[in-house]
Amino acid sequence: MQKCWHSDPEKRPDAYNIYQSIHKIFNNEWNNHFRKQEPTKIIESSDIGPVSINAPGAIYKSRPLSAIINSAMSLKISRKISRSRSIKISKSRLIDTDYISRELEFDI
Q1: Range in 65-69, 81-85, 93-97 the model is least confident about
Q2: 106 within a domain of the structure (yes/no)
Q3: What is the DSSP string of 14-54?
Q4: Domain limits at 22?
Q5: Does a structural domain hold residue 46?
Q6: b/e per residue 63-86 (b: at least 16 CB within 10 A)
Q7: 3-state DSSP call for residue 12?
Q8: Within-domain flag for 60
Q9: Domain for residue 89, yes or no?
Q10: From residue 23, how far is each of 39, 74, 77, 104 by CA, in Å?
Q11: Which of 48, 79, 105, 106 lies 20 to 30 Å (CA to CA) from residue 27?
Q12: Which of 40, 13, 42, 44 is nearest to 27 (CA)?
């Protein structure tokens, strides 16, 4: 995986090489499963995980998505409420218009 992060794009593996590496790992795990061997263990490491870098001049910044998702959900809910109110208003206008048109028909 470290090869994929190389700073020089020319030294990064192409899609086919990544596929071969993943296929090799999968075959090893599959063979271990049928041989009743213990599967590969995932080791927790402080080297793996989010890395915080303070770059004040950065254009793009990594942010947690939960706040953005909550904001989008509240916007979606408020739009639903707004739509339902406008539907109720338009229905009431149709009823009022219908009543007025009947009234005008009787006045003539």
Answers
A1: 93-97
A2: yes
A3: -HHHHHHHHHHHHHHHHHHHHTTPPPPPPPP-TTSS-----
A4: 1-39
A5: no
A6: eeeeeeeeeeeeeeeeeeeeeeee
A7: coil
A8: no
A9: yes
A10: 16, 43, 44, 79
A11: 48
A12: 40
